[in-house]
User: What shape does this take?
Amino acid sequence: MDWASHYPAFIETETANHRHEETPNVPSTALKKEVTIADIGCGFGGLLVALAPKFPDELIIGIRELDNSNIDMEGMEIRMQVTEFVQDRIRSLRNRNRESGTYQNIACVRANTMKFLPNFFKKAQLAKIFLCFPDPHFKARKHKARIVSATLNSEYAFVLRPGGVLYTITDVADLHTWMVRHFEDHPSFARLNEDEQEADKCVETMKMETEEGKKVERNKGEKFVACFQRLQDPPWL
Assistant: This one.
């Protein structure tokens, strides 16, 4: 995945210039660092914006999930407008904070991670993955479309480094139970206990800074949180 267009402030200038001299017709896209935090299903970008100043040295990507149920008569993805909104929001924040350089470390793309997650990240690249208020797909026949499953959890395990954390939050109790069961059943994950979870600064941010989290708060709803640490692979893998 070529991330350079999304993080122009982090392009490795010296390397890029050297490559351009060797192959002037090929774009120079080397970055100083890799993306290490992913918000999958990033909504309107609230969590991205909140995490940017908390992790100024990390590159954070928000991924708007493609959804075939949101295709209009001309084959266009209706939620594209939301992706463009988040991208415009980031550009505006970058322009207003040029002196400090804040918000240069966040970006948003539109993709189907349920099919192509390993195309975006290499093995053990990510330190944190957020799954915030995913679509519950209430009907039993639609459960296969949920963003947590045995197959998808193996892909999360592939891109998440040992010791990394995957965060989940929802206001739907049934979905929370589903996600906990599937991650606890997976050999690559162990659930954080309550003390470990509350000590993680990302948990409170996830609860309070997403647009969906704010809506649940206004409606005095309940938020269900579960966090899972990526375990070390056994030596034979």
About this structure: The first strand starts at residue 35 and ends at 40. The two ends are 25 Å apart (CA to CA).
